């Protein structure tokens, strides 16, 4: 660690459509890769590594993703933000740059994350939402879905909703919010907040809740999936396109007015 | 004209990003071309030609475009709509299909068209709006813009706002609405209704109004541009991406509840 290095927190938004997900890969354009390339260039070629609050899958979007990294740069926060805004592509935008204490860790320090999942409820699918929502034209049983959603909040093991690619052993997470609401413009929005999420957890929850909404699953099936921890009982994984990392919250963020 | 042919009105929505505009071209994917191919296939290979209410440029979107065409098909309206929904791509959706009197003409019978133009007013540009809005971060002088907008409605010659590609001789159109409003989510919306529009007219109006909003043009310049009919006095052509053909209205549509 060079003595001139400072730790930065960078808040980002992106359209996930043209990225192979968050994490750097040998091949393929990833959010982390494009961001690290820009920061490395800003630092005159000295390689920069960033730590993200959440690893979004290919096709998943972010309204607010947060990363931290060490940078050796003479630039002030606002100057760095301007430089990044000019260097990054249109589908990856810096929202805010700030210097943080060296101990800051984007993932570990997050107090909660919120993901939202958008449904396009129009009859034939709104072409302007095709990249950003799952089209679902049929009627949904809102009462059954709300009954199922009410079973979710709490601190529990989420193995029943973890994707097969999930490698973590401790699958206990505290879910604080699980809601569904339909707006006036023919859109439906799921919203989930937790201290952390497992691989594919939100997409598996949405896929299962849609089966409840269609009347294929009873609302109580949610309880059985949670109790058994058996992914086979859950519904299909909903497509990535409708999923948005909506917000990452940190202690003290609100006091700052962010 | 075969005796079995009926005239259909088809309402459509599309994301213009991946189309080279409305009109069929020798090369390039166009909305008219993709639609005619699907209808021709539906009719067992007998070529179908459609007439659109408006010819949108490359990159311009439609919330409601209307076409008419003669079709020889045994399918009922709802069946044809289903078939089209299955055949057309995700960025071109049928909204409604109905049989109309043979005299119906999508362009000539339209009583008014409405175009909207969307601004993304966020600081760094929302990546989820990049295809569908013009990013404009700076402050806009709303009072000056509204003063300029108030000069627009009326029946007049619009040569000052016509693009150089505009070939029509009679450039008189009746503009009935010209407004701008900012929403709570950091978006700005221009809305223009008229009995017809010239090539690039809306985009030239928006480009000019933004110069007024930035303080580079006085609101009264609008009057000079209209009086002189001189495109050189107007602002730049705003990018296609923010423009949406919002609505095409026909006499009797409202009575039907459409």
Distance, first to last CA of chain A: 30 Å
Largest interface: A-B, 22 and 22 residues
> Count of helical segments of chain A?
6
**Topology as H/E string of chain A?**
EHEEHEEEHEEEHHEH
Name the quaternary structure. homodimer
Rg of chain A, nearest Å: 19 Å
Describe the overall structure:
The structure is a homodimer of 258-residue chains. By secondary structure, the first copy, chain A, is α+β, with helices and mostly antiparallel strands. Chain A is 22% helix and 28% strand. In chain A, a hairpin with an 8-residue loop joins β2 (51-52) and β3. The longest helix of chain A is centred in the last third of the chain and has 13 residues, at 201-213. The radius of gyration of chain A is 19 Å and the shape is globular. At the A-B interface, β4 of A face β4 of B.
């Amino acid at each position: 660690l060079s003595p001139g290095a400072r730790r930065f927190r960078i808040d980002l938004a992106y359209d996930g459509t043209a990225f192979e997900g968050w994490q750097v890969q040998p091949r393929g354009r990833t959010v982390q890769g494009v961001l690290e390339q820009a920061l490395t260039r800003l630092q005159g070629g000295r390689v920069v590594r960033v730590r993200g609050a959440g690893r979004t899958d290919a096709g998943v979007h972010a309204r607010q993703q947060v990363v931290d990294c060490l940078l050796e740069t003479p630039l002030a926060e606002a100057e760095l933000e301007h430089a990044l805004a000019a260097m990054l592509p249109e589908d990856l935008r810096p929202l805010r740059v700030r210097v943080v204490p060296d101990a800051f860790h984007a993932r570990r320090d997050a107090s909660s994350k919120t993901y939202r999942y958008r449904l396009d409820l129009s009859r034939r699918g709104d072409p302007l939402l095709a990249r950003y929502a799952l089209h679902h034209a049929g009627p949904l049983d809102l009462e059954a879905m709300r009954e199922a959603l009410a079973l979710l909040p709490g601190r529990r093991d989420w193995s029943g909703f973890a994707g097969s690619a999930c490698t973590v052993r401790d699958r206990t997470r505290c879910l604080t919010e699980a809601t569904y609401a339909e707006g006036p413009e023919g859109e439906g929005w799921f919203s989930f907040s937790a201290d952390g999420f497992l691989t594919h957890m939100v997409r598996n929850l949405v896929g299962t809740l849609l089966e409840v909404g269609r009347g294929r699953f009873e609302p109580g099936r949610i309880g059985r999936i949670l109790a058994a921890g058996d992914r086979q009982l859950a519904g299909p994984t909903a497509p990535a396109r409708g999923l948005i990392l909506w917000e990452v919250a940190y202690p003290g963020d609100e006091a700052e007015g962010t």
